[in-house]
Design a protein that fits this description.
The chain has about 120 residues and is α+β, with helices and mostly antiparallel strands. Helices cover about 20% and strands about 40% of the residues.
Length: about 120
């Protein structure tokens, strides 16, 4: 391995450690219930849950990698893929399973107890 590749690998490892440390001290992501349509602009670090007729239909959030794309996760059990949102008493959400963007930025992460856990 050349010195340039080792240097890039070292910088990548440092970047991941700093990102994980920052994620550990920043406040957890919050949830916002929305009836009907999503707002035209979504706020970072919020998970929006869209409900209609008493049923949660989708969850949406701004991609945590920084690419600013809006991610939509289906919450209807009879359609695939399907996610489940759990909210604790502090209104801190968790998502199951992980979110993995196959196109675009390729982010792959879990949302656990309001924190992004990178895969």
């Amino acid at each position: 391995m050349t010195w340039a590749k080792r240097f890039v690998s070292f910088i990548d490892a440092c970047s991941k450690r700093v990102s994980r440390a920052w994620e550990a001290i920043r406040p957890p992501m919050r949830i916002e219930q929305v009836a009907g349509d999503l707002p035209s602009r979504l706020t970072r670090r919020k998970l929006y849950v869209v409900s209609e007729d008493g049923f949660d239909e989708q969850a949406a959030m701004v991609c945590p990698c920084g690419c600013k794309q809006v991610l939509h996760m289906n919450l209807l059990r009879d359609e695939r893929p399907c996610w489940t949102v759990r909210v604790d008493d502090r209104k801190v959400p968790s998502l199951h399973p992980s979110v993995w963007r196959k196109k675009g930025c390729g982010s792959h992460f879990w949302l656990r107890r309001g924190r992004i856990v990178w895969c």
